[in-house]
Amino acid sequence: MAQATNMAQTLIRRYFAEHSIVEASINSFNLFVEETLPAIIEENKEVEPTIIPANVEEFKIRLDKIWVTKPEITEADGSTRAIYPVEAKLRKLSYAAPIFMEVSALINGVPRESFKTQIGSLPIMLKSKFCHLHNLSRDELIEKGEDPTDPGGYFVINGTEKVIVTIEDLASNRLMVEKASMGISKYVGKMFSERGSYKIPHTFEKLKDNIFYLSFTRVKRIPIIPLIKALGLVKDEEIMRFIDLPNNSEVIINLYDFIDIKNSEDALDFVSKAIGISQTREIRLERSQEILDKYLLPHVGGEPEDRLTKAHNLCKYLRRFIMISSGMIPQDDKDHFMNKRLKMPGDLLGDLFRLNMKVLIGDMLYNFQRIVKRGKFPSIRVIIREKLLTQKVYSSMATGNWVGGRTGVCQRIERLNFIQTQSHLQRVVSPLSSSQENFQARALHST
Asked: How many domains are contained in the chain?
């Protein structure tokens, strides 16, 4: 027994000699800079102003490569040099690195100008790949004035040590069906479909008329069968085959109610009228297709070729909803560990940067169009305000107020003792507010 205990202790010591206690947070930040930032730029790759000079047919601003260097500071005399965390803390500065991006302007598809510019500053997580302390030895850390036992995994904002706390959240892109506590549907299926900047709630219900309904952004309680047909799965026998239930009576009732819908155009027309689009038939069909492509199950895809896959997924979700509501399988447990996800610092910074990148692009468009209205054709160098993105990011990290109305995401590190500091760096918080009486969520789950 004693030998087994000694072996376990040796293994634990060996593991933490090679791995940091905040390794997950550091890897999350590295992933954010290396992969999430370029993905956000790819989402907003081309920007088209609505007001352009009269002699120009087409004008586009293209955002290309983005990269982050190591932390530096610009002194009062204009000189730039590297800054280390200890100096940032002592001088009440932010330990941040400049963000550079390649920007180009195209007139009628022909490049007008292309350059690299700084679009802001990004606070850098200590001990990450982009920190000056990365891979330094114990002696080198002491030489730089750092505590060699400090694990890193936090930021320095205006001289204050700040940590982005990991948040426990429900898994996206998973349908969870449970008994409804209120409303006219006995069971409710809920899912957040998430892709890039889109996170759209979808709600499945069965009302007293025995028809299955789906609600999502801009669309309130629309029958599911016409939606499936509008996406290209038109034949009733194919819908039955994809839903694939031992007892199809509920599906047959729904199919019979919409037996007059023979093709996808009729289904799209039904959907457009249900949404409330009241133009000519051609415009109605076009707008309803745009809504289905953009807002229905965005995690599956947003292109016309993804419509059939969305129809197959709706059949799969409907099958699960029917099986749970009819008691064939048990209802979903939101508190089960497989239905939970952790939003790490990199994920939360991705949400923050995605929102503020849209603010920066909106500001660029406003500045460009304002100058064009005066009869000038400006260089796009003058319309980019690098302080805007920096101020937005710093403000959120200083106050802890985050995207989606979350508060307390970024907190000041508690330094009463070493163990408390390590605990704070690895803390996971629940999104439930203290005023909510949710006893099941607060209880220890067996998983």
From this structure: 2
